[in-house]
Amino acid sequence: MKPRVGFIGLGVIGAPMAGRLLEQGFPLLVWNRTPSRADSLVARGAHRAATPRELASAADLVITMVTDGAALREVVERADGLAAGLAAGKVHCDMSTIDPATARNLTDFYAARNAHFLHAPVLGNWRAAQEGRLLIFAGGADRAVEQCQPVFDALGKKVWRWSRPEQATCVKLACNLLLGGLMELLAESLLLASRAGIPPRTMLEIFAESALHSPMVQSKGETIAHRKFTPPSFYLRHMRKDLDLALAAAQELGAHTPATRAVRDAFAAAEHQRAELDYSAVFEWLEEQSPAPAS
Ligand SMILES: NC(=O)c1ccc[n+]([C@@H]2O[C@H](COP(=O)([O-])OP(=O)(O)OC[C@H]3O[C@@H](n4cnc5c(N)ncnc54)[C@H](OP(=O)(O)O)[C@@H]3O)[C@@H](O)[C@H]2O)c1
User: Fold this and answer.
1) Contact criterion met (CB below 8 Å) for 215 and 225
2) Burial (CB count within 10 angstroms: exposed 0-12, middle 13-18, buried 19+), residue 26
3) Which partner for 10 in 37, 67, 103, 202 could form a disulfide, CB atoms 3.0-4.6 Å apart?
4) Do 260 and 246 form a contact (C-beta atoms < 8 A)?
5) Roughly what angle, to the nearest 10 degrees, separates helices 200-208 and 215-226?
6) Is pLDDT above 90 for 295?
7) CB of residue 169 inside a 6 A radius of ligand 1
8) Pocket probe mutation, ligand 1, options 40, 237, 238, max atoms within 8 Å of Cβ
């Protein structure tokens, strides 16, 4: 029998993940800070919990998909939070992109209550979530991973495992560092070409025929070509957050990452007016910074 899953955080990627679990036959409880975001899942058969505590007491295991470590700690530690409802032996698996320290601290926090914390961040967008094709990086005790395995099988196409949660966290940050860097350089490349009168479409055609071909370059290149930065598949403010997290982790681990700093600064500047757009909107910011030379 499938475990009863409690799901918290029904944003751009959390909602399709929860929807996928429902579609795959998991009994589902949901809670979201803004309650209306749970309405469509409730209409499809999910049960609405009044508080995270109620959700944790009724579920066999809890999944969270919230903005960052601060949001996660709030959901856990508030008076009617997860910690107040999660019984000994149960697992809280966080799949958000958070900082390594929060992953470490929550592991100790739950262990002191004889419960388990697993950090299992994901790579992939809302469509991959909807279709069960996410890549899952699971960090934590084997027993906790085993309890979450049915959920991972439904959500993911492949799972990698590490014993320490912060290793999984760092794998995710290393992936997003590359994603942010690729996005920034793709945007700069398309901008340079467009200044020479070459449209993005032509550049994408060239990339597609070359060793530069990649699904990310093609799909985000199309987003830029159409200037379709909303609705976002990944908020620009989240990419800046992840680059900050990657820089902090690199500093802690003694890794020299100068280009990540430059990319982070570009996203931070772009965020002033474009926080709620897709992260590919960094292209618009670059354009704004590039007045055409006087002819
Ligand atoms: N989008 C992607 O493609 C993608 C891919 C991989 C990983 N991620 C990661 O997944 C996480 C969620 O991303 P998303 O794109 O779904 O973001 P999002 O649309 O901004 O959703 C964030 C969710 O967190 C909730 N939240 C924020 N602060 C909270 C708080 N203090 N207490 C309770 N709930 C809080 C929000 O509730 P409200 O509805 O009330 O605001 C919302 O449900 C992030 O860590 C992101 O980096 C995203």
Assistant:
1) no
2) buried
3) 37
4) yes
5) 170
6) no
7) no
8) 238
Is the CB–ligand 1 distance for residue 34 below 6 Å?
yes
Give the span between the Cα atoms of 178 and 188, in whole angstroms: 15
Per-residue model confidence as pLDDT tens digits over 153-202: 999 999 999 999 999 999 999 999 999 999 999 999 999 999 999 999 99
How far apart CA 97 and CA 39 sit, in angstroms, is 25
Q: What is the pLDDT of residues 63-113, one digit of tens each?
A: 999 999 999 999 999 999 999 999 999 999 999 999 999 999 999 999 999
Q: What are phi and psi of 144, to 5 degrees?
A: -70, -40
Distance 121 CA to ligand 1 centre (A): 12
Residues 6+ positions from 140 with CB-CB distance below 8 Å: 107, 116, 117, 118, 119, 120, 163, 164, 165, 168
Cβ-contact 106, 94 below 8 angstroms? yes
Q: Is the dihedral of CA 268, 271, 277, 282 positive or negative?
A: negative
Give the H/E segment covering residue 30.
strand 28-31
Q: How far apart are CA 17 and CA 14, in angstroms?
A: 5
Instruction: With CA atoms as reference, report the closest residue to 164 among 105, 90, 92.
Output: 105
Separation between Cα atoms, residue 40 and residue 238, nearest integer Å: 24
> Which domains are assigned to the chain?
5-163 (3.40.50.720), 169-288 (1.10.1040.10)
